[in-house]
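Researcher: Quick test of sequence recovery. Tokens follow.
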């Protein structure tokens, strides 16, 4: 009986230790806006996508990752993003944003074929949808907790 308990404990520890937080972004895109009131850094680039927790009983808390934009395999932009929690069988929006000066933004606009004159006139560009070759998540960290323990904490 004691050996069976130890075996169950070790198997559970191995299973829980192998649980991985979301490693990819679903439907990633760039949202680019222009703020006429900002004279220093009027161009805002927001990277956005969804991360999915496909586990049925574990929630991920304190999730963080670097969202890395790539161009021909080389890093173009790296921004950190965080989520307080990602519940089981759910998808959560993950985003990060950065403001740019005109000089910093010009090569970025060329890379993603953004019409800068139209952007400055309207204040917003069409979304730029990204492929998995254009964006990756790196330096992913998260804690995992059984959903039942989170629900119990919420009742207190």
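Model:
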């Amino acid at each position: 009986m004691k050996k069976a308990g130890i075996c169950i404990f070790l198997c559970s520890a191995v299973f829980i230790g192998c649980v991985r937080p979301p490693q990819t972004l679903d439907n990633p895109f760039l949202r680019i806006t222009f703020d006429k009131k900002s004279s220093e850094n009027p161009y805002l680039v927001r990277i956005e996508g969804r991360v999915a927790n496909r586990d049925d009983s574990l929630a991920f808390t304190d999730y963080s990752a670097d969202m890395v934009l790539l161009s021909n395999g080389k890093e173009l932009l790296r921004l950190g993003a965080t989520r307080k929690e990602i519940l089981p069988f759910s998808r959560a929006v993950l985003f990060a944003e950065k403001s740019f000066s005109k000089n910093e933004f010009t090569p970025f606009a060329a890379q993603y074929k953004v019409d800068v004159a139209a952007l400055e006139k309207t204040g917003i560009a069409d979304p730029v949808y990204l492929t998995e070759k254009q964006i990756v998540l790196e330096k992913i960290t998260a804690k995992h907790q059984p959903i039942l323990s989170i629900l119990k904490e919420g009742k207190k």
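The beta strands are 26-34, 43-53, 58-71, 74-86, 90-100, 128-129, 135-146.
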